[in-house]
Amino acid sequence: MTTPRTSTRNRNRRTEILEAAAGLFAARGFHGVSIEDIGGAVGVSGPALYRHFAGKDALLAEMLLDISSRLRESAVAVVTSASGPAETLDALLNVQITFALEQPALITVHDRELGNVPEQERRQIRRLQRLYVEEWVTVLAELHPLCPPPRLRAATHAVFGLLNSTPHSAGELPDQAMRPLLHAMARAAIDASVNVH
Known about the structure:
Blueprint (H helix, E strand, L loop, with lengths): L3 H25 L6 H8 L13 H26 L3 H18 L1 H10 L5 H25 L5 H15 L2 H4 L5 H21 L2
């Protein structure tokens, strides 16, 4: 029987492995990293990782499923608790900005390596991402009821592209300066996109 302490230790070890793997995959690419490299980054032998993951592709799949799920859950929490659509949009922007500033390696890994995720898990990731986008579209539709949903969806994807550019600008500005800059640019991009005729 697994005790709570053992379960927490295993979860912490899995998180440590996922974080190390994200950094390695971002720096060297999925195919440029071995199980032994990941093990070495967390201070264990490569084969010891098989106690936590079935293989490198399973590790990649869990990494991207986890962040896709967490973003969706954060959006649902925001949408169900915010007081109105303008406040909800600001909160959604803050969720995405926090992710963009804190997880640039995951952004790089997703952009470059999603094709290396097994097909079943890749479909799950895509589904979670679509649901996340629809949370945004629902809020934007309340703010801009005359704007067609396809345009709102396109605007949402464009804003993600803007915010998720952080792997290219990491370190240029401190977070306390970068956060309001990204927020202002994203709001301006949304306003511009819904007002185009």
